[in-house]
Structures are given as structure tokens and as C-alpha cells.
Amino acid sequence: MESFEDLGLSEDVLKTLKRKGYEEPTPIQVKTIPVILAGKKDVVGQAQTGTGKTAAFGLPIIELLQENVKHVQALVLTPTRELAIQVAEEVNSLKGKKRLSVVPIYGGQSIDMQLRSLKKGVDVVVGTPGRIIDHLNRRTLKLGAISYLVLDEADEMLNMGFIDEVKEIMESANPEKRTMLFSATMPTEIMRIAEKYMRAYEVLGVQKGALTVSQTDQIYFEVSLSDKFEALCRIIDMEAAFYGLVFCRTKIDAETVANHLIDRGYDADALHGDLSQSQREKILNKFKKRQINILVATDVAARGIDVHDLTHVINFALPQDPESYVHRIGRTGRAGKEGTAITFVTPEEYRKLQYIRKSAKTDIRRETLPKVKDVIRIKKQRIKSDLEEIMSSGLQDNYLEMSRELLSGNFPDEMLAALLQYAFHEELDEKSYTEIEDVKTVDTTGKTRLFVAKGKKDGLTPRKLVDFIKDKCNIREEKIKGVQVLEKFSFVALPFQEAEVLLNHFKKNKKGRWPLITRAKEGRKK
Ligand code: ADP
Ligand code: MG
Fold it and tell me: Which residues line ligand 1 (CB under 6 A)?
């Protein structure tokens, strides 16, 4: 296993990595860092989302940049403003003691603010293509002397229609620059760009699947059916930047949940099989651009959608089977950063959860839902820190003026309270949440009584039945209880999990015909 020390990084950067808690380089980092540091060839790097591509170019570029340079040294292009911010943050957090200034430049942010920081002198600009072109046209950004150009998430830039802008930027930048292109996938269009606009380059790729450092924290909440929606709202509200998929079982459920969310003021939409291709793409695009941060989907509709960097996957309803559970939750969690998978379980569904947990060989932890008090406390903290951030990033004159006007003749605390009410309405009011009823903790040690559609007349004996079950679900004999072989049918009691395995087995194998083993009708626990 390669370590960061083997890659040729400086002491200072190694220390920073240690502080950040990066223990070892990801496979793409192992490949690209030495090549970029060597300082010769351009690089095309391919690895799936969440594999640390930012540091794969960020670390060596930080090493190569000079301090006290009077012009922009590196430009990183990203498809979205969120990525621009994220990448700028990551690069900033990696630069250690080196005095480099890294700024995100993106559409939607005030141009004045950007002008100010550009004027102050910037070493690394991380920006979206459109806004970069704006600045180039205004001559407020000059790329004539840059040493490095990075195209980050190149396939996304292609998908989002930025390719002409990207080409334009590549052409207008210093012809002596080194170019690095990073992408999760490599469609031919991208390889063509590399071919045409890059100098001698090396392609460094990592096979899909070989590299998931991603982790998912798996939690379940016990909640009654009628409280699921309220529980969902609380979970979303607890999170500063919720970006998640909510899975429902049916189209109707997906629509209903999405509509309720929208009614409560969330940016949500539903994705299900009844949508036309173009509606589907529109919704997906909004989600990818984070115009909506909650997508409520059915399993079928979510199949094949290519978003991985989710903070949350929520199983509003339990998935059909362990495979779809694994598939659903695989969409959250990025290298190093934990994603969270949350499953709502009603008391009736508890056994099914146990079965999923067992078959998927995965650990799902029980937690209790956040209390309204806590949700509101967190929201208030967030508002406070947002306000502080706005203050430290510079206030606009006309707002300052208005603020003085508002305060003259009024008590500041009252005026501020009025402003908060105006801005947040009932959002910080405990009454805007409904109570969630505690559901009974479910018995995990119980048994399921099963009905077997064969009896003595079929030659079945207790011994044969026990052996059959032992064989089918890999269970110790002591756990098989209540064996009763009657003339035409039989009964047996198994622990929940094994019973689910067996029931599922017979459901699958006997299509159309009445299954050999079913749940016994009278009383489940005996
Ligand atoms: P990509 O661009 O490939 O989708 P990112 O660069 O956004 O991936 O990285 C995903 C996450 O992994 C980030 O939170 C980043 O901080 C973290 N990360 C990157 N490299 C490492 C590493 N070597 N060890 C642990 N975490 C890492
Ligand atoms: Mg990336």
C-alpha cells in the first residue's frame, strides 16, 4: 500500500494531510500526484465520483505554485458553483502554511465582490465556465500567465453544455500551461478535447469498483406510518446542507411526499416511472444543479441516475429486498466523508428490516428521532453563523443604510426580532412541527410461526421437516421450535430472521402456485 510519503509531497503538506485525517492516498491520488509533481506531461485522470480527485490535482499543484506571484497561477474549471466552492475549500484546506490565495468565482455571486478579490491578487481561481468568460471579457481576469489549467468533472461540464466555453477558455489561456483533465467517465467527446487542446498527456485511470473508500452511516428510526412525514422534515431540518434521495415504494407515495414537502417550503420534486424522458431529465438536472435538494423517487425511477455525492439516502419505505437496500444506500457517502442512510421502520416492518440487515451483512443502528427543541436550536445556530459569515464577508452599503434607518427611533432588539419574524415566519416556531408518537420498541427475540403445506400424508415427519429447514436457512437445530406435523399440513416456529429467509425463498421459487411455506394465520408469536 502506497503512503502519502511515497508520493513526493513536502513535509508541510504531509502535516496538513495528517491534520485533515487523510490516512492514505486514494488510488487516483497515487497515480496522478507523482506524475503532476514530475512537472512534464499533461494529465487525464479518470476515477469515479467520491474518490478524491480534488486532492489528486490539488496537492501537487499546491506544491508547484510559487508564493508572492503577481498574477493568477492556476485556474480550475468546475461545472457548478457548488463544486467551485467545494473545490476551493478543499484546495484551501490542503495548502498548509503556503501563502496562496484560492478563490471561487461563480455565477450568482456579486461580481463586485469577485472584482475586489481578483484585484487583491489571487493565485488559484476556481470557477464555472460562464462566469470565467464574463471576467475574461471584462478583462478583470487574465489567464495569459497561468501555469496550470484543471478541468474538473469534465464529463459534467460536457453534460451541462459548457463545452464551447471550456474550449474558448483553453484557447485563450497561456499556451505554455499544463492542462489536467479530471472526469468520472471518459466519453469520446472528452478524449477529443484532450487530443485537440492538450499537449503530450498521460491517461491515468482507476477501475470502477476498485476504490470505494466511501462509508455510509446506517441508521434506522422506529416511527409509525402516519408520523413518517414529520420525521422526514425533522431530519432534513437538522442538516445544514441536506442533499438527498428519499425512496418511496410507489409513484403515488413519491408524488404525495414530494408535494407535502413542497407545501412546507422545501425544494423537492418527485421522480417516478410515469414521467416522460424530458420531464425526467429536467428534474434530474435541477437536482444535479441543486436547485432542488430533495428528490423523492421510486426504485425503478432512480435506477441508472448518476448522482453519488449525496449527504443522505432516506428509505421512507423499506426496500423490497436486501439487494435494493444495498443499491439505494450505495448512492450516499464519498471517500472520507460519511454519507448517511436512514431507514424508517414501522413496528410491522421490523422483521423485514432484520432480514435485510442480515442478508445485506450490514450494520444498521437504531437512533431516536430529533426532538423539535433540538431541531429549532440547530436552526437558530445556523442562522447565527450564517449572519456572522455575511458580516465577515462584507456588508452592502445600501443595507447598512437601511439598517440605520430602521434603528432610528426603535429599540434594536425589537427591530431585530421583527426582522427575524419577517424573514423566518413560523420556521423557528415549535408549533410548526407536529408531535411524533413513540412507537413501541419491537421484540427482537420473537419467533414467527410458519405454515407448511405438507403433512403426514405426504410422508413428512418432524425429523424430515427439521432437516429441511436446517438445510434451507442454515440454522441451528435448537432454534427450530414448535414442530407439529399434522395429516395434511404442518407448523414450525423460527426466529424472525430465519423465518424471513425461508418465506422469501418460497415466495421467489414458486411463482403462481401456492408456496410450500407461508406465515401461519393465527397469532404470529407463540
Ligand atoms: P471526487 O472529485 O473524486 O468526486 P472529492 O475530491 O470531492 O472526490 O473527494 C471526496 C471526499 O473524499 C472529500 O470529502 C475529500 O475531502 C475526501 N478525501 C479525498 N482524499 C482523501 C484521502 N486520501 N483520505 C480520506 N479522504 C479523502
Ligand atoms: Mg470532484
Answer: 22, 25-26, 29, 47, 49-55, 90, 334-337
